[in-house]
Amino acid sequence: MRGLFYGNWFIGLCAVALGVEAAMQQGVPLNGPWYHILIFLGCVAFYNHAYRDLERVKVGDDRVRWYALHGRWQQVMQYLIVGVLCAALAVAWVVFHGHVLHMRAHHLLSLVAFPFVGVAYYGIHGASLRRVGWLKPFALGFVWAGVVTVYPVVVYAILHDTDMPAAGSTGRLFLKNMMFLAVLSVLFDIKDHAADHRNDLRTFVVQRGLRTTLFRIVLPLTLLGILSFLVHGATHGFSFMKLLLNSIPFLALLAVIHALRKRRSVLYYLAVVDGLLLLKALCGIFSTFWP
To answer: How far is CA 25 from CA 137, 153, 281, in A?
Structure first.
């Protein structure tokens, strides 16, 4: 069970589910299984990269100890995943290169922008967005929102030579997803508070402390998210069930904020906090069956 969460397989599943949610909410048909497999493996590889050297670490939390024990196997898996990704992209190029070569400029920009920020998150020539504590959660939220919100519609538009949904609806959904993911990233920084403090990484929780981070940063952002969604839904004629289903993840987030006043295990963060992503995706998918 630990391998599902510590090996980042669960977070890959969450990425696929959020992509399906975003596509359905924008009224765009789903891309084929190959696309979702690429998203799944890309997400797993992205998060495994952060733990590439942990097999040499002998102390730390339960996740660090797990990587120290399974480090060699994780390295093999990472090489395998990257190999499969490269092979799949090569096949996709052969099959779809005619569509790709004739894509529009804004499609290309959308495809390139989010991986670029993702690479910059880990570092380019020694400069890393991850080192800028206050920017870290928003950089992650930007990459996540791009991959799960923009990619499904851009890839479909390229491969089927169709127009994308209205920019306004995609933009609102992108912002909603970005802020939700950024809030979860801030919560994850609580887990790494001690290590970030030692490494002089000035995250919100390092600078402001636990209670201020939870109740003066995360809580107001969450309440603002709920309020803005309810106002948007009410002014656009959303049904009660649609409003209720899309509000559930925010209400669950409020419960998690309350629970994080106490110290929680690494597994709690990976199963419960990340689990909010899967909950959000499922609620969003089911909400599309109501007007």
So the answer is: 24, 11, 10
